[in-house]
């Protein structure tokens, strides 16, 4: 069973990155790299790809009711390790819609970002945290600052939570602080 899960995980990873090469540039235009930290002895890295000009699933009137955020889609690869036992590692593929609200009218604006997506983990335990199943939800919220007006590069500080919504017990979940650097192209 473990071998089958690793093969499926590898195929999903390949599909995510193949889609970034196939889609037109206007639909896939931002890369990001991130570091993450948890008080539960977990540190990690994240590499992601954001589609910013993609299909909008909700009617404009619904988005207007919640402040007219921009809707983005993001796929990422995460890898976390137990800082007390470096051989203990967990990897995840994530996909999430992200809502982005512009908070300021500055030349270098500040944004609020939030999203709820899905994740596929290759293991179910890390640093004493029991996740029970490979499928997890990714909840996140953060602030993003566009520090370069010309390139629209941003730096973000956010909080992410991973859990499986009690689909199985136990459901310890993971809580992480995430610092990201976003580069549009």
Automatic annotation (TrEMBL):
InterPro entries: Lipid-A_deacylase-rel. This is Lipid A 3-O-deacylase PagL. Pfam families: PagL. It comes from Pseudidiomarina maritima. The lineage of its organism: Bacteria, Pseudomonadati, Pseudomonadota, Gammaproteobacteria, Alteromonadales.
């Amino acid at each position: 069973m473990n071998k089958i899960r690793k093969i499926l995980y590898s195929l999903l990873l390949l599909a995510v990155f193949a889609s970034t090469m196939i889609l037109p540039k206007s639909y896939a235009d931002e890369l990001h790299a991130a570091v993450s930290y948890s008080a539960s002895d977990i540190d990690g890295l994240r590499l992601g790809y954001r589609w910013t000009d993609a299909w909008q699933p909700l009617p404009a009137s619904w988005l207007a009711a919640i402040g007219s955020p921009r809707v983005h889609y993001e796929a990422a690869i995460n890898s976390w390790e137990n800082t007390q036992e470096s051989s203990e590692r967990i990897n995840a593929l994530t996909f999430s819609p992200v809502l982005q609200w512009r908070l300021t009218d500055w030349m270098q604006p500040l944004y609020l970002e939030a999203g709820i997506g899905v994740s596929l983990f290759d293991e179910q335990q890390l640093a004493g945290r029991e996740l029970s199943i490979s499928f997890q939800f990714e909840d996140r919220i953060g602030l993003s600052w566009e520090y370069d007006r010309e390139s629209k590069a941003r730096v973000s500080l956010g909080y992410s939570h991973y859990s499986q919504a009690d689909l199985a017990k136990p459901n310890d979940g993971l809580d992480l602080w995430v610092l990201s650097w976003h580069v549009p192209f």
